[in-house]
Amino acid sequence: MEQGRSLTNENDQYRSMFDEKRKEIEPLHQALGKLRNTNSYACVGICSSEEELSDVIYILQYGIQHKSIPLTEEKQILREIKQLKGTRDKVIANAAMRAKIQDSMGQKEAIQDQVKLMDSDLDGVRKEQQAVWEDLINLGIK
Questions:
Q1: What percent of the chain has pLDDT over 90?
Q2: CB burial of residue 114 (10 Å; 0-12, 13-18, 19+)
Q3: If phi over 0 gives left and psi between -120 and 50 gives alpha, with beta otherwise, what is residue 111?
Q4: Do the beta carbons of residue 134 and residue 12 sit within 8 Å?
Q5: Which of 18, 69, 97, 105 could bond to 31 as cystine, CB 3.0-4.6 Å?
């Protein structure tokens, strides 16, 4: 009976360690998700940097000035340029957020390495907990 209590306590400790490790990993997974999302911007809708935005606007303006295009197409390009200029604040904010995430959480690879290490720690805890469960089952407690 004493051995059963000891194993039950040990099982509870493993469960709390497992929960703790999962809580530690969660912010890392969230940071990786944010990095993945912010790195996927192309200049369709929103550019990934202010420099890219300026380049796209310059290319469009250059096309208007140096190509022979119909007036309707020129008006469409001017609307696109106006729309792109309207996204400048959002582009700057996204770049700042991306820099903040990278500064506070380290580079993506470092985070992935940290998650891998923590996952292997979790695997170890799972194996130890499984052994305790088997002992409890053999004693007829669970």
A1: 25
A2: middle
A3: alpha
A4: no
A5: 105
Contact of 57 with 81, CB cutoff 8 Å: yes
State the alpha helices, DSSP H only, in the chain. Answer: 2-39, 50-66, 71-86, 88-105, 108-138
Cα separation, 109 vs 31, whole angstroms: 12
Burial of 21 (0-12, 13-18, 19+ CB in 10 A): middle
The token pair that represents 63 in the structure block: 């096309």
Residue type at position 135: D
Q: How far apart are CA 70 and CA 65, in angstroms?
A: 12
Residue-wise pLDDT for 46-89, tens only, equals 787 899 999 999 999 998 998 888 999 999 999 999 999 999 99
User: CB 14: neighbour CB atoms within 10 A?
Assistant: 19
